[in-house]
Design goal:
It contains three helices and 18 strands. It is of the alpha+beta class. The termini are far apart.
């Protein structure tokens, strides 16, 4: 009976106090909280929708040397050419295969640098990108005081989805007293022990401190070779006119590294063999008497 009266008292207290809690709550706070729940947040007036901004490609101005050369096909950023050399491209002149003089093309090319697609596959998996650097009638004095007036170098690159590679190199024109010399085909690999060529994966730049001389295929009469001192070159897509990571010339593992690996491996084999021999040594038990008294070593002091 007492429990029944207590239960009725508690229910009555709950009806009387309504939503009052055990702890005292500020009435102003409850009212503002109820108002925030009832009113939806309205968007700010005049607030524009925030849309992600696409980064526009950086426009790079063409450059015609003497140490930096850059060009691209209009509206086609995947066909770009960027080349830097130290002091300028060099031409090496030969007479019947005998060295005559060396000329440093240390002036800006008057004919600028131009590029064009001369052929491509039907499925466009590869394309030949031709780059022309024309100095027109600029005069250059050689180390042996001979002179040439103008030069025109043509380079053809095969560009695929994986890499770019120099496939043709020509000196189209040589001015001055040798104006009749034209279309000198050059080797696409330098005449060194390793025979360096210009190639690198797409997105990377090819670099070499001493690439060597690209010599003419035919050495009869007047001919020329080309040197790119301390070259760095990238063909295809050049982001913002800046080189990608450098793909160095030469073999992946030089001779010195191979010698170090072989010597270290040989030394490791000798050490392993010596340790295995030491581990196989057993104590001699020839004069032990199994029936004799065994030796007891006390473990306590």
């Amino acid at each position: 009976m007492i429990r029944y009266h207590l239960l009725v008292a508690l229910v009555g207290a709950g009806l009387a106090f309504g939503d009052e809690s055990f702890f005292e709550v500020d009435q102003d706070f409850k009212a503002s909280h109820r108002q925030l729940l009832q009113v939806d947040e309205a968007p700010e007036e005049g607030r524009a929708d925030e849309t992600p901004k696409t980064e526009e490609p950086v426009k790079v101005s063409p450059s015609a040397g003497p140490t930096r050369f850059f060009t691209e096909l209009e509206g086609k950023t995947k066909n770009q050419f960027l080349l830097t050399v130290k002091n300028g491209i060099k031409l090496v002149k030969y007479q019947d295969g005998v060295y005559v003089d060396t000329y440093v093309l240390n002036k800006e090319a008057q004919g600028k640098v131009s590029g064009s697609i001369i052929r491509h596959s039907e499925d466009k998996l590869w394309r030949i990108f031709q780059v022309d650097i024309d100095w027109k009638s600029e005069g250059f004095l050689g180390k042996n005081a001979t002179e040439i007036n103008g030069a025109h170098i043509e380079m053809n690159f095969n560009i695929t989805n994986k890499k770019f590679e120099l496939v043709e190199l020509k000196v189209v024109k040589l001015g001055g007293n040798d104006a009749g010399v034209a279309h000198i085909d050059l080797e696409v690999k330098t005449k060194t022990n390793l025979g360096y060529g210009i190639e690198a994966p797409i997105g990377l730049s090819f670099g070499c401190g001493d690439l060597g001389v690209f010599k003419p295929k035919n050495s009869e009469g007047i001919s020329v070779g080309v040197i790119f001192p301390d070259i760095q070159i990238q063909v295809g897509k050049v982001h913002g006119g800046k080189f990608g990571p450098v793909w160095e010339c030469g073999v992946l593992l030089p001779i010195g590294l191979w010698v170090g690996i072989i010597v270290s491996l040989f030394f490791a084999i000798i050490c392993c063999w010596g340790f295995s021999m030491l581990a196989s040594i057993n104590t001699m038990d020839r004069f032990d008497d199994p029936k004799g008294k065994s030796i007891n070593v006390p473990n306590t002091d």
